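Practice problem 4.
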């Protein structure tokens, strides 16, 4: 269903999607070390990219979603609705203000 022209396009949309929740509980990409099962019932074989989201402070409880499902979730939630895309872009920019070269130089 979701078709991203590039990995970069998908990752930018994922950043906007993550802007909806706190950074602590955002979705993170991982490489599976063992077989997992996606929340939608798909197998995630070892050495495959998947996404996980912690549900508690300790990270003991988490959701796991395979990459195709995550692309679909992000597309349906963010990219299929121009207003959602605009709103999450604003949220992302508020949480991650652009840095200037001068500010970067001041830190070093």
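Answer key:
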């Amino acid at each position: 269903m979701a078709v991203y022209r590039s990995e970069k396009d998908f990752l930018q949309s994922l950043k906007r999607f993550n802007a909806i929740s706190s950074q602590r509980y955002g979705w993170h990409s991982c490489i599976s070390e063992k077989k997992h099962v996606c929340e939608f019932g798909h197998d995630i074989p070892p050495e495959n990219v998947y996404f996980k989201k912690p549900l508690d402070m300790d990270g003991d409880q988490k959701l796991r979603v395979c990459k195709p499902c995550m692309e679909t979730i992000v597309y349906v939630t963010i990219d299929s609705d121009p207003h959602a895309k605009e709103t999450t872009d604003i949220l992302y920019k508020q949480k991650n203000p652009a840095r200037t070269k001068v500010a970067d130089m001041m830190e070093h």
